[in-house]
């Protein structure tokens, strides 16, 4: 077990492409940390540099206090689980799991004991003499985990280990990965493009974009206090709603409503030196059906009236979708997020708004509804830099 | 090249026989029967052509091998049963040639495998000028064997050859048995390493990059990754390459014909067959030798195909399930 420190780590390919730029992460001993971001953001490259499968162009990587930049993967004492599982097809499950121990010239009795222990933990005992080709996806994934844990390495690296599983199994495996990490107490660095996995698994999450770390923090912190537009849009499902808005005389004008700023937000904006044109962000759960609220609650926000496009009842609550007239908010970050989820290809006109309202709401599909939103939960962003103007964190 | 295509056909043929044998036990539905009939009809044209161009000569050779048939004494032609086989198999020259052929086959294939693997790894790993490297490496395979054999002969000719002069003067290496065999093997290896490398490179492409990364993470050094991961995973490709080359090498003719003409007991079985059939005009004995070569090659192919049965990952799973 050991802490892992990335100190200004940079990866530049021979053709000049910058894959990872000045990454600073301090991973504590026993911590479960997630690297998340859209494809091509440099998260896998970062993981491969920790593993030693890719050279570090500049900066320093320390594991357990020692600089390991120049060490081969086998000398770093870390184990890795690959998205493809990378099981050796010519070996049985037992041989696969024993392989790292055999290479380390561990005696037979110990190998036998460790493999059996790992198989016990991962519920693979009855499959030990089968070959990978005869296993299901979930079983293969567990064998890959088994091969990593038999060595009791200083740290585990996971490269999208659940991406090849079907949705139901993925949720199930997610909890078992989490439980396994707590049980073993080993440092784990986990790469995923799935923000739900990032939110549910990690002690801390590192959001990356274009090779640059955007923000590092606990999942809830990133959700509540995104430092910029990209993190705000990436974390959360359904994602935050963004609208163009104008700041004028302490009022926020948008196609939703005219909203007097709360004192808290006004102070933050003053110290952030906010521009006039901003992007307003509101999370779906900060909306509510106005019909369900008393006057005191209503006074803490603003309301708008719109026609319900789509109504999804989730049982516990409802998602109501609206289309507002006006231009969509535009910024480089939002364009990249849209491209990542593929929504850039869906033609839309006007502003799409997702609201999460109480299940008790009388809102009906195709009819108009009055929707309230919380004035103090609004976040404002600078459209040119993407900076969160209402960022209250340190 | 025609030899190789023959071989691949025979491999496919063996596979098809195995599969249809397994299916035969199952009771077929109407739809399956119709599908099968259509399948047979679709392969019929190809099968007929194959029988005409390969099946008939084989049958004719077997028939000839059972005759006393010497074109110098055509009036003595008669059916003699297996007498020709007795004659050939009790003859010292045949067994010498058989030994020489086997030696050339084993030694050259071993060298070709090792060097071919090296070349394949180089071509697989080359990042710059990959196309150029591959083209250059393939040149020997593109040169007509007879032409290449002549250039080897001149190079080793005492007094004029540049290679002969390297190995000391007034020694006609091609007229001494052991050096001559070594030169024959050298010429064979030089010619077919690129072919071997190509086949092995196709096998290398089958080894997923993640598997090698995983092995590196598991603590394997370069050599261990090669022997414990790469070779086992590409074993089917290695066996195919070995099969092709072993069958090919066993029928060696042109290099020996040009380099030594079989002098100093350097004849291969194919040379002996040629000597009896074409030079000696003894159709019966020549055909007998041809049939014996055919049987040997068939045995080699059979052994290899049996090996495939347990080595190829795909067939292994089917076998276990």
What order do the helices and strands come in, and which of them pair?
The complex is a heterodimer of chains A (394) and B (321).
Chain A: E1 4-12, E2 18-27, E3 32-36, H1 43-51, E4 58-63, E5 66-67, E6 78-81, H2 93-103, H3 108-122, H4 137-149, E7 155-159, H5 167-184, E8 187-192, H6 195-201, E9 204-209, E10 212-217, H7 219-224, H8 229-234, E11 241-248, E12 251-254, E13 258-260, H9 263-272, E14 277-282, E15 287-289, H10 295-299, E16 301-307, E17 310-313, E18 317-324, H11 332-341, E19 351-358, E20 368-374, E21 379-381
Parallel strand pairs in A: 3-8, 3-9, 6-7, 7-8
Antiparallel strand pairs in A: 1-2, 1-4, 4-5, 9-10, 11-12, 11-14, 12-13, 14-21, 15-20, 16-20, 17-18, 18-19
Chain B: H1 2-23, H2 30-65, E1 67-68, E2 78-79, H3 83-89, H4 92-125, H5 130-142, H6 145-156, H7 162-166, H8 177-204, H9 209-217, H10 222-233, H11 235-250, H12 254-259, H13 269-279, H14 283-311, H15 313-320
Antiparallel strand pairs in B: 1-2
Helix pairs in contact in B: 2-14, 3-14, 4-8, 4-11, 5-8, 8-11, 9-10, 11-14, 13-14, 14-15
Description:
The complex is a heterodimer of chains A (394) and B (321). Chain A is an alpha+beta fold. Helix content of chain A is 28%, strand content 30%. Chain A has 11 helices and 21 strands. Chain A has helices at 43-51, 93-103, 108-122, 137-149, 167-184, 195-201, 219-224, 229-234, 263-272, 295-299, 332-341, and strands at residues 4-12, 18-27, 32-36, 58-63, 66-67, 78-81, 155-159, 187-192, 204-209, 212-217, 241-248, 251-254, 258-260, 277-282, 287-289, 301-307, 310-313, 317-324, 351-358, 368-374, 379-381. In chain A, the strands form 5 sheets. In chain A, strands 6-7-8-3-9-10 form a 6-stranded mixed β-sheet, with helices on both faces. In chain A, strands 13-12-11-14-21 form a 5-stranded antiparallel β-sheet. In chain A, strands 2-1-4-5 form a 4-stranded antiparallel β-sheet, covered by helices on one side. In chain A, a hairpin with a 2-residue loop joins strand 11 and strand 12 (251-254). The two termini of chain A are 30 Å apart. The model of chain A has no long low-confidence stretch (mean pLDDT 90). Chain B has one domain (83-318): Orthogonal Bundle (MetI-like fold), CATH 1.10.3720. Chain B has helices at 2-23, 30-65, 83-89, 92-125, 130-142, 145-156, 162-166, 177-204, 209-217, 222-233, 235-250, 254-259, 269-279, 283-311, 313-320; strands at residues 67-68, 78-79. In chain B, helix 3 (83-89) crosses helix 14 and helix 11 (235-250) packs antiparallel against helix 14 (283-311). Chains A and B meet through strand 6 and helix 2 of A and helix 9, helix 10 and helix 15 of B. Chain A: Keywords: ATP-binding, Cell membrane, Membrane, Nucleotide-binding, Translocase, Transport. Chain A: This is sn-glycerol-3-phosphate ABC transporter ATP-binding protein UgpC. Chain A: One of its GO terms (cellular component) is ATP-binding cassette (ABC) transporter complex, substrate-binding subunit-containing.
């Amino acid at each position: 077990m050991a802490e892992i420190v990335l100190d200004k780590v940079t990866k530049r390919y021979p053709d000049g492409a910058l894959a990872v730029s000045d990454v600073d992460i301090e991973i504590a001993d026993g911590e479960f940390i997630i690297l998340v971001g859209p494809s091509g953001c440099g998260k896998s490259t970062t993981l491969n540099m920790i593993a030693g499968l890719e050279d570090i162009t500049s900066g320093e990587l320390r594991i357990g206090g020692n600089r390991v930049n120049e060490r081969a993967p086998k000398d770093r004492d870390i184990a890795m689980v690959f998205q493809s599982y990378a099981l050796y097809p010519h070996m049985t499950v037992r041989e696969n799991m024993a392989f790292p121990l055999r290479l380390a010239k561990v005696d037979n009795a110990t190998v036998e004991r460790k493999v059996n222990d790992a198989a016990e933990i991962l519920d693979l005992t009855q499959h030990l003499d089968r070959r990978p080709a005869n296993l299901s996806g979930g079983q293969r994934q567990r064998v890959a985990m088994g091969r990593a844990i038999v060595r009791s390495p200083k740290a585990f690296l996971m490269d999208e280990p659940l991406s090849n599983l079907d949705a139901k199994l993925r949720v199930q495996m997610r909890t078992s990965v989490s439980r396994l990490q707590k049980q073993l107490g080993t440092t784990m660095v986990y790469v995923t493009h799935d923000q739900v996995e990032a939110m549910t698994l990690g002690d801390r999450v590192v959001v990356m974009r274009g090779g640059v770390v955007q923000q590092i923090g606990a999942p809830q912190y990133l959700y509540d206090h995104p430092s910029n537009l990209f993190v705000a849009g990436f974390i959360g499902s359904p994602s935050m709603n963004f609208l163009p808005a104008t700041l004028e005389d302490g009022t926020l004008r948008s196609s939703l409503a005219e909203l007097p700023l709360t004192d808290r937000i006004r102070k933050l904006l003053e110290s952030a030196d906010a521009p006039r044109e901003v992007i307003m962000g509101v999370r779906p759960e900060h909306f509510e059906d106005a019909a369900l609220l008393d006057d005191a609650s209503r006074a803490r926000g603003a309301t708008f009236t719109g026609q319900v496009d789509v109504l999804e009842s989730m049982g516990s609550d409802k998602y109501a979708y609206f289309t507002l007239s006006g231009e969509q908010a535009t910024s480089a970050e939002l364009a990249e997020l849209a491209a990542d989820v593929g929504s850039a290809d869906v033609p839309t006109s006007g502003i799409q708004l997702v609201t999460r309202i109480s299940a008790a709401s009388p809102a009906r599909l195709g009819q108009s509804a009055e929707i309230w939103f919380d004035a103090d939960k609004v976040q404002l962003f600078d459209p040119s830099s993407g900076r969160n103007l209402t960022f209250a964190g340190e | 090249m025609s030899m190789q295509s023959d071989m691949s056909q025979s491999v496919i043929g063996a596979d098809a026989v195995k599969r249809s044998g397994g299916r035969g036990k199952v009771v077929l539905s109407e739809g399956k029967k119709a599908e099968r009939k259509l399948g047979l009809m679709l392969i019929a044209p190809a099968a007929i052509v194959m029988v005409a161009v390969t099946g008939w000569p084989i049958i004719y050779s077997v028939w000839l091998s059972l005759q006393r048939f010497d074109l110098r004494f055509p009036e003595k032609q008669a059916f003699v049963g297996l007498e020709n086989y007795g004659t050939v198999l009790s003859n010292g020259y045949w067994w010498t040639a058989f030994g020489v052929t086997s030696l050339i086959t084993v030694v050259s294939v071993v060298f070709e495998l090792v060097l071919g693997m090296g070349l394949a790894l180089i071509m697989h790993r080359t990042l710059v000028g990959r196309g150029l490297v591959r083209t250059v490496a393939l040149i020997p395979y593109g040169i007509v064997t007879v032409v290449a054999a002549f250039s080897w002969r001149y190079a080793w000719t005492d007094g004029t050859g540049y290679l002969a002069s390297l190995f000391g003067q007034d020694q006609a290496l091609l007229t001494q048995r052991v050096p001559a065999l070594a030169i024959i093997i050298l010429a064979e290896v030089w010619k077919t390493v690129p072919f071997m490398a190509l086949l092995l490179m196709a096998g290398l492409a089958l080894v997923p990059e993640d598997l090698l990364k995983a092995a590196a993470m598991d603590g394997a050094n370069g050599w261990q990754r090669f022997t414990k991961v790469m070779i086992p995973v590409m074993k089917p490709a290695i066996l195919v390459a070995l099969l092709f080359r072993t069958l090919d090498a066993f029928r060696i003719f042109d290099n020996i014909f040009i380099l030594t003409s079989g002098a100093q007991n350097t004849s291969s079985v194919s040379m002996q067959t040629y000597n009896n059939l074409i030079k000696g005009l003894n159709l019966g004995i020549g055909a007998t030798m041809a049939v014996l070569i055919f049987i040997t090659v068939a045995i080699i192919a059979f052994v290899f195909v049996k090996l495939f049965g347990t080595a190829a990952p795909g067939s292994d799973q089917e076998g276990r399930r």
